[in-house]
From TrEMBL, chain A:
The keyword Membrane applies. PANTHER family: ABC TRANSPORTER, PERMEASE PROTEIN (PTHR47089), GUANOSINE ABC TRANSPORTER PERMEASE PROTEIN NUPP (PTHR47089:SF1). It is found in: Cell membrane. Its main location: membrane. It is a multi-pass membrane protein. This is Sugar ABC transporter permease. GO terms for cellular component: plasma membrane. GO terms for molecular function: transmembrane transporter activity. Pfam families: BPD_transp_2. The keyword Membrane applies. The chain crosses the membrane at residues 12-38, 58-80, 92-109, 115-136, 145-163, 200-218, 248-268, 326-345.
TrEMBL record, chain B:
It comes from Streptomyces malaysiense. This is BMP family ABC transporter substrate-binding protein. Its main location: membrane. Keywords: Cell membrane, Lipoprotein, Membrane, Signal. It is a lipid-anchor. Residues 1-23 form the signal peptide. One of its GO terms (cellular component) is plasma membrane.
């Protein structure tokens, strides 16, 4: 029996690796065809991506980008595991980063304390914003997809209203940039100096911790089990005594709190203030990355790294004379291929399982017959 | 088994990361400097880093492109263009400028105020390369800050609007409520009220804060303009990028109403022929002049540095006269212009 389970797991592992691999290979082939169709040679493009992408400063860039993307992927994945489509991560992280920046600019406490407060403020803001959608869903039955999209727009409007000189922001750089007051240098998060490669965001450590927490809470606790159960079947969860409503609100809150951290690498390690050009739309990247990583903490990390790699290298492709739209094409194709590849592999796995079970049953059915014949 | 596989996968991933981050000491600049030397065609190598929208936006970026094109034609050489995305972070903008600098492009023009911090950083790293930044001010020995007095041309647009309105009611449509567009609003409103304090000015912004869709949504421009027209306004000034075309379209549907364009002379823009009869004038911002001046100065070996303000006096901004609809009020406009140039009128930069 023991041997049997280990064999099935090995196969599952193989199948699990096969899907993303298949997707990436298919995406590469399609991208090569697209580049060919634009009248250029894909060979040098790919080799340029490899040499440029593995230079040390590129690696620092990729890790920094991936830090943000990883947090986005995890916060989306928390909702996914629960069968909740939290599209509102975008509004949640922007609002969180904004209020955290305002708070951080106003604080004059010792560095570690104000950093802690900034993080708590960001997570709380994200959680509250996500909770609105959760409460609406359980009390009024509003689909979280609709409410979170609307909350994104409302978040934009709130930031637009408050990010004005005289309200919570000031004018900088010759009166061309509106931004919150910069954080005092004491509350800058630490940077890891990698020499000529540039500086690595210290927040990558926090991102890794979030990943571990995500893995532990969802995979190793009663709460995580309940959450996954609700995601797979609400009626089964209710039958086993789980309060679905409570789980919906709780998981939205956790997803929102994680979303609150998305803007933090940028705020605490790079810009130190929230201005009108604070990056937007990261959460949508997060959705793609969560899909790519199959909601798995390691998968999401690999997806985030892949995304960072693609952005870094395709930025450079534009420089080499390829069209800059290639990035969008590769990313879109990868996501599509991933979805298709997983489905193909899942069906293949199911079929194999059926065949195996069928074979076993046939063997069992055949065995007594033999005995009979002997008898 | 499963757990072991998972843990080993995690270890592998982290080990690979740690290795790749430390072991590979070569930076992309090392590679670039060795490979790019063969690429030069002679002449001047102009690097352009556009804001979101890039070449072809019929407005701001296009104007910068015109300046670079002119320089390329006149001096020979080549242009390399890179364009921003909305999801850009500081690192992306820095990468863009650094790629250009590494490949030996000089001068490098950053179009748009979003590039200010990255220009500051990269210019310090490449002291032998000349950088230009449009719409912002960056300190540096090798940086030319190209700024414009948009409020002055908007003031003149306001004077024209106040003189042309028959209903004593005009409108202003801004793309996004950022400080730059507020300069347009401030100048326009002041121009209107200095000419005729009784004229009412409606002000509307198409989007706010981080939502920059107001610069690229002709439908929003059209709705806003229609609302103002229905309210009784009959001259509308739209400082809203390509959304302005929607406003002009709406104005075109009302007899006797006028539209005022922005940045480029809208009367002469291909595709706007249908609406020519409604375009009173445009508050032109000659980004091309600023960009060309800068490239020329680098070519001549005396690169411009510091903050170069392209004012009304220097022809950096102006009020277009195409169409001839301003002929009857030209003397008054000239008088107002003279007062601004002489410093008798100080135009506000914030509303």
């Amino acid at each position: 029996m023991n041997k049997l389970t280990s064999r099935i797991d090995k196969e599952r592992l193989l199948l699990g690796i096969a899907a993303p691999l298949l997707a990436i290979v298919a995406a590469l082939v399609i991208t090569a065809l697209v580049i060919l169709a634009t009248g250029k040679n894909p060979g040098p493009a790919f080799s340029d991506m490899m040499t440029y992408g593995f230079a040390s400063d590129s690696q620092v860039y990729i890790l920094n980008k991936a830090t943000t993307y990883y947090l986005a992927g995890v916060s989306v994945a928390i909702g996914f595991r629960m069968n909740l489509f939290n599209i509102g991560v975008d509004g949640q992280y922007r609002l969180a980063a904004f209020f955290a920046a305002v708070l951080g600019g106003a604080l004059t406490l010792p560095g570690w304390l104000s950093m802690l407060l900034i993080l708590i403020c960001a997570m709380a803001t994200g959680a509250v914003w996500a909770a609105i959608a959760g409460v609406l869903k359980v009390t009024r039955g509003v689909s979280e997809v609709i409410s979170t999209i609307m909350l994104n727009s409302i978040a934009t409007a709130i930031i637009g209203y408050l990010l004005q000189p005289g309200k919570l922001a000031h004018l900088y750089q010759g009166g061309t940039v509106v931004a919150t007051k910069p954080l005092p240098s004491a509350s800058h998060f630490f940077l890891i100096d990698t020499g000529p490669g540039g500086e690595l965001d210290g927040f990558i450590v926090v991102a890794a911790l979030v990943g571990v927490a995500y893995w532990f809470v969802l995979g190793r606790t009663r709460f995580g089990y309940d959450l996954r159960t609700v995601g797979q079947s609400e009626s089964a969860a209710t039958a086993s005594g789980v309060s679905v409503k409570k789980m919906v609100v709780t998981s939205m809150i956790i997803s929102g709190a994680a979303a609150g951290l998305i803007g933090m690498p940028t705020l605490l390690n790079e810009s130190y203030q929230f201005s009108s050009d604070f990056p937007t739309g990261i959460a949508f990247t997060g959705i793609a990355i969560a899909l790519l990583g199959r909601n798995n903490p390691i998968g999401i990390a690999l997806g985030a790294l892949l995304w960072g790699f693609l952005e870094r290298t395709t930025n450079h492709l534009e420089f080499q004379g390829y069209d800059k739209e290639i990035l969008g094409v590769i990313q879109g194709v990868i996501v599509l291929c991933v979805v298709i590849a997983y489905e193909v592999v899942r069906r293949y796995g199911l079929k194999r399982q059926q065949q195996k079970v069928g074979a076993e049953l046939a063997a069992q059915a055949a065995a007594p017959k033999k005995k009979l014949e002997v008898a | 088994m499963r757990r072991v596989a998972k843990i080993s996968a995690a270890c592998l991933a982290t080990a690979a990361l740690a290795l790749s981050a430390t072991a590979c000491g070569k930076t992309s600049s090392d590679d670039a400097s060795s490979s790019s030397s063969g690429g030069a065609k002679g002449g001047i190598k102009i690097g352009l880093a556009y804001d979101v929208g890039g070449r072809g936006d019929r407005s701001f970026n296009d104007s910068a492109a015109r300046g670079a094109d002119k320089a390329e034609k006149q001096f020979g050489g080549s242009i390399k263009e890179l364009t921003a995305k909305t999801s850009d972070t500081e690192a992306d903008r820095e990468q863009r400028l650094q790629d250009l600098a590494d490949a030996g492009y000089n001068p490098i023009v950053a179009v748009g105020y979003a590039y200010a911090p990255s220009v500051q950083k990269i210019a310090a790293k490449y002291p032998k390369t000349n950088f230009g930044i449009v719409d912002s001010v960056v300190d540096g020995k090798n940086v030319d800050s190209i700024t414009f007095t948009e409020e002055q041309s908007s003031y003149l647009a306001g004077v024209a609007a106040a003189l042309k309105t028959k209903k004593s009611h005009v409108g202003f449509i801004g793309g996004v409520d950022n400080p730059l567009i507020k300069k347009f609003q401030a100048g326009y409103v002041q121009g209107v009220h200095d000419t005729n304090p009784k004229v009412k000015v409606d002000v509307q912004y198409l989007s706010h804060g981080q939502d920059t869709s107001g610069f690229s949504s002709p439908d929003k421009g059209q709705q806003a303009a229609q609302g103002m027209l229905d309210n009784g306004a009959d001259v509308i000034y739209a400082a809203a990028g390509s959304s302005g075309t929607g406003a002009i379209e709406a104005v075109n549907g009302v007899k006797g109403a006028w539209a005022i364009g922005v940045d480029s002379d809208q009367y002469n823009i291909p595709g706007m022929e249908k609406y020519k009869s409604s375009i009173l004038t445009s508050a032109v911002k000659n980004v091309d002049v600023g960009v060309f001046d800068f490239i020329q100065s680098v070519k001549n070996g005396k690169p411009l540095t510091g903050n170069n303000v392209y004012s009304l006096a220097k022809g950096g901004v102006s009020l277009a006269t195409s169409g001839g609809y301003l002929k009857d009020i030209q003397p008054k406009l000239d008088a107002a212009k003279q007062k601004i140039v002489d410093g008798k009128i100080k135009v506000k930069t914030t509303p």
